[in-house]
Amino acid sequence: MLELETHELTLYSIILFLLLESLIEIYLTFRQLRVYHGSKTVPKELRDVMDAETFEKARLYGLDKANYGLFKTIVCDVMISLFELYYGFMALVWMRSTQLSETFGLNPRSEIHVGCLFALLLNVIGTLKEMPFKIYSTFVLEERHGFNKQTAGFFVKDQIKAFIVAQVLTLPVSAAFIYIVQIGGKYFFLWLWAFVGAISLLLIMIYPVYIAPLFDKFRPLEDGVLKTSITELANRLKFPLGQLFVVEGSKRSAHSNAYFTGLFGVKRIVLFDTLLLNKGLPADDASLTESDKGKGCKNEEVLAVLAHELGHWKLGHISKNIVIMQVQLFLIFLVFSQLFTYAPLYEAVGLPAGEKPILIGLMVIMMYVLAPYNTLISFAMTIMSRRFEYQADAFAVGLGYAKELGQALIKLQVDNLGFPVYDWMYSSWNHSHPTLLQRLERLTTEEGKKKR
């Protein structure tokens, strides 16, 4: 029997795990597809608030999304990704980057120069591969169910801006990463950890102020009852509210959301206009379409949603997630420092013996070597996230918003055509939030505890 080389064994082990992971995803999707096909009546808990027509629309929307997700998993994660891995796609891009570097006035012997060109080429190729799926998702799937609000021109501008911003951020970080590994000595992973951690925190702070406005229009929330109520809620919780904004998310999608930003000191709360009743406009406003009228949450329901979000802040969920992220970064860079000189990892992805580009080493270790660990951590984070959601709901109940939060959750589910019935295994693996029925049941329990 022919013995496998170490790098071949490494390659086949990686392919086997990735294939297994994709098959699990496919199996779970098939379980949920059975639910979509078999669920034809509104759950008894929602019969007073969701009619049969809306339930059917949500079922068909969920069915289309699941079929699309299944197709994308098979094409991208099974066919393309494993094909690229087996035939050494990353190595080919690296060699091409070396060849092209001199053409662009770069030094082909400088790993920083070649590495930046490599990152750029990968981003270009990745964007081109992803574009047909984005176009289909936006202009076919979302359009079919009434959620897409983008014109072709808006979409193209959006994609160009997103690509440019990504390169502005990616290329300097890639160069700095290579440089730190080259000069950092035996404990370079500590410097890497500090650098990437600082960059991550910086991006969290600057994204809402400088980057998000490149893509969406933000306006201050108008003076009125809602603004006064939000300010009073923030003061009651000693939340350091600085600014209240409404983002015109309706130009991109009909889906709703709300969030707050800022790590230290003054923070801002951002409401999607689709969260507000009639997008926050008078019911007779000429810009409102018939489909927009009546959608969104009333003021008390918006306050309940914000009470939930502020619960995440008050309970320290944001800080805990940041700490976990930093621990994760440290562990990844520690493993990288121990394995990045291991030659079979590079040979497994098609590089000739002796070549060990730092960026490829990082990608191979993060994406492939640590894949089992990443899967377990992702599942653990999903479990923790669901627990945090229950805690934030309980916090809102403690503030007296049990009824309003339940109404808001139902309204958002209906407006966004969220299907309320899920296979338990699919939901446990994929959903960072409990399902609507689970949250409504827990709200009832928490309200009962409060009354006792």
Automatic annotation (TrEMBL):
Annotated ranges, domain Peptidase M48: 221-446
Spans through the membrane: 12-30, 69-92, 112-128, 162-182, 188-210, 322-346, 358-381
Any one of the GO CC terms: endoplasmic reticulum membrane
Cofactor binding description: Binds 1 zinc ion per subunit.
Protease as UniProt keyword: yes
Lineage: Eukaryota, Metazoa, Ecdysozoa, Arthropoda, Hexapoda
Keyword Nucleotide-binding among record annotations: no
List of residues binding Zn(2+): H308, H312, E389
The protein, known as: CAAX prenyl protease
Positions of the CAAX prenyl protease 1 N-terminal domain: 32-217
Molecular function terms from GO: metal ion binding; metalloendopeptidase activity
Membrane topology designation: Multi-pass membrane protein
